[in-house]
Amino acid sequence: MATADELNRGRMNEIDRYVIQSNMEDLCQELKKSDVLITNMFSKHIFNSDDIDMIEKQLEKNPRQGIKEALKCLMASGGVNAFDVFIDCLNKSGFAHVAEKLQIDRKERTEAMNVEAKLPDAVTTPPS
């Protein structure tokens, strides 16, 4: 039987990775005081012990580097539900304004991709 860690490991989906990567600068700035957030994500099995060790090493160097490492771990191995858990943890950790911005960006990106998917292929018609 698979453990919660095994079920939650794996790459985040494309849209969610795009949203986090596009907001990386703001996230690094906003989440400087993130101890509670990182602990919440560990308790939700988004981060494992190895992730926490890497994140803590970076936090010791510089809070910005620690957040950047946490976001890289989230995108690379947090799993398909990681974005939703991240949003929940942001809300519970006092970063509701950040969660709201990410959710708006995610909705806009999803809508844009849906529109792109519905566009017909360009067909050139010979001039008459």
From TrEMBL:
Coiled coil: none
GO biological process: regulation of apoptotic process
Alphabetical list of InterPro entries matching this protein: CARD, DEATH-like_dom_sf
Domain called CARD: residue spans: 12-105
This protein's name: CARD domain-containing protein
Organism annotation: Patella caerulea
